[in-house]
Amino acid sequence: MHIHILGICGTFMGGLALIARELGYTVSGSDQNVYPPMSTQLQEQGISLMNGYKAENLDIKPDLVVIGNALSRGNPEVEAVLNRGLHYVSGPQWLAEHVLQDRWVLAVAGTHGKTTTTSMLSWILEYNGFKPGFLIGGIPLNFGISARLGESDFFVIEADEYDCAFFDKRSKFVHYRPRTLILNNLEYDHADIFENLDAIKKQFHHLLRTVPGEGQIIAPVVDPHISDVLAQGCWTPVVTTAIGETADWQAELSAADGSQFGVSFQGQFQGQLHWSLNGRHNVYNALAAIAAARHIGIQAAAAIQALHHFENVKRRMEVIVKRQGITVYDDFAHHPTAIKTTLDGLRKQVGSARIIAIVEPRSNTMRLGVHTQSLAESLAEADDAIIYQPDNLGWDLSSLLQYNQNIRIIDNLDAIIGLVKAAAGTESHVLLMSNGSFGGIYRRLAEEV
């Protein structure tokens, strides 16, 4: 069977392609403006990539076309699918019907931390011999691949609230039917498809309706929006997490940057975790992953031991340059809260050393200018805050200055690179935050700094 995937270089669709290939299908796909690491990963797995969306891409006569949510009516390849009467489905529907049926699904949902938490949970299962399948919106360094079929009944999945396809506007996660569900947090995001926060809460409640009564939901006690969703109706036991507050799972920080903390369950100490990650957000991610692992029988001590060896995910505070006193990090930032928590963790780790934060507002929500004030305020911990304004952004970034005078707006990548190079010889931490290719700045900094 030949499956052709439209939008194959997206993190979700690329992972789906890897799983389809593992199932023995012939897999091809098309996309545009592709960039590593997903394009490289697919080519290494022998999957044929077509650059650009064209009707003639379908002359290969695939048995099934899987259409990603980035494509809409008017796209020439989508129109050709419809005009030729080809069989097509959304990615989440294909996954539910061909992979997730009859498996114990452990899903991670929330505005922030999905990729990291899914990676942690997958690694805990792997380290303890469970050989899970997984589909992750990034490439966890412990595995070197974003998705696989697995060799057990367990499948770990990043459960995104974004819609499925132009013909299925439900959130992806309603297809997954998890038995174990992590709800990391909930904020307003995806302003291109959700009118307000209540619309997102509605989708999250639809997700709750799919979790069986014998399953388990893991949620923080401190998130009021998650509490609102649960209050709409919940038929599944809820296990709570917290840092320094009363909850089923508790963390007590031994280091302010979150690199060391103790874990307790129902008041009983389970172990101490000392790892390379930092930030309170990652402490919450770890607690949730440990709790989810316990639901399938992995004791907390064994989960903590696994996380001692966790290597994080590509593009999550990934060091790409370290020389001449400068450390450059690549971080897949997409929302002001993610920027703020990342900078807070880095500040606690490096103390008074200089932090240069460079942001490309590329996510749909940030491109619409929805989070103007919170974006400006999220950069408060940076000594230098630089925001890149490309020609096609669609709103004037100068409005940020009323909330943070420390921000510099630059529309030229050469000027940004020059500022970083000028920091040579000092102890400086340069944090590049974008959920895209950022005009190739990563490669240039690696070569020029």
Short description:
Its cofactor is Mg(2+). By secondary structure, this protein is an alpha/beta fold. The chain contains 14 helices and 23 strands.
Write the layout of secondary structure elements.
Layout: E1 2-6, H1 11-22, E2 26-31, H2 38-44, E3 48-51, E4 64-67, H3 76-83, E5 88-90, H4 91-100, E6 104-109, H5 114-127, E7 133-135, E8 147-148, E9 154-158, E10 163-165, E11 168-171, E12 180-183, H6 197-208, E13 216-220, H7 224-231, E14 238-243, E15 249-253, E16 260-265, E17 268-274, H8 280-295, H9 300-307, E18 318-323, E19 326-331, H10 336-350, E20 354-359, H11 364-367, H12 372-377, E21 384-388, E22 407-410, H13 413-422, E23 428-433, H14 441-448
Parallel strand pairs: 1-2, 1-4, 2-3, 4-5, 6-9, 6-12, 7-9, 12-13, 13-14, 14-15, 19-23, 20-21, 20-23, 21-22
Antiparallel strand pairs: 7-8, 10-11, 15-16, 16-17, 18-19
**Number of extended strands:** 23
CATH class of the largest domain: Alpha Beta
Class from secondary-structure proportions: alpha/beta
Mean pLDDT: 89
Oligomer: single chain
Q: Flag low-confidence runs.
A: none
Beta-strand content? 15-25%
CATH architecture of the largest domain: 3-Layer(aba) Sandwich
Q: How many DSSP H or I helices?
A: 14
Number of domains: 3
Strand adjacency order, main sheet: 8-7-9-6-12-13-14-15-16-17
What is the fourth-level CATH superfamily of the largest domain? Mur-like, catalytic domain
Radius of gyration using CA atoms only: 22 Å
Cα-to-Cα separation, first versus last residue: 48 Å
Q: What helical percentage do the residues reach? A: 25-40%
Shape, principal axes of CA atoms: globular
Sheet having the most strands = 10 strands, mixed
Domain Mur ligase C-terminal: 315-436
Function: Reutilizes the intact tripeptide L-alanyl-gamma-D-glutamyl-meso-diaminopimelate by linking it to UDP-N-acetylmuramate.
Domain Mur ligase N-terminal catalytic: 2-101
Family: Belongs to the MurCDEF family. Mpl subfamily.
